[in-house]
Amino acid sequence: MNSLTCPITISFLEKGSTVNSANYCELLRQVKKDIKNKRRGHQSKGVILHHDNARPHTAAQTVQTINELGWELLPHPPYSPDLAPSDFHLFGPLKAFTRGTKFESDDEVKSVVSDWLRHQSKDFYAEGIRKLVHRWEKCVTVLGDYVEKLKKVSFYLY
């Protein structure tokens, strides 16, 4: 199995709910189960988790859960939404896929989104990780400034 691949865990909150540390920790535990089921015979150690700095992700309960799971946490620079793979790699193509679609129900939205996520190739997800590495390198180049600004700025190294 390619080291950049991982099972897809899809979870939707109930209408009116928000992500909090408790439900995020439960999702992380589900991800561990999904990894274990998908990679039978392999340990679910060696997982490197990347998420942004939203409050539920940085809460003490979440940090404790990540430690209990034995996962490494890839630090996320503050105020860097341009480094969140969901923002720069998933949502754009998903938005393009659903553009112009009128959904009749929340269940239809869940079904379409789930199907779309499941039908993306392993290469699609691996490319998101490769893009993340490239974006991190850009972030270092601009000393932590917003990565998208690089499109407008030229750099000369002496």
TrEMBL record:
Gene3D superfamilies xref list: Ribonuclease H-like superfamily/Ribonuclease H
Molecular functions (GO terms): nucleic acid binding
Domain Tc1-like transposase DDE positions: 16-107
InterPro entries, alphabetized: RNaseH_sf (IPR036397), Tc1-like_DDE_dom (IPR038717), Transposase-MT_Hybrid (IPR052709)
Name of this protein: Tc1-like transposase DDE domain-containing protein
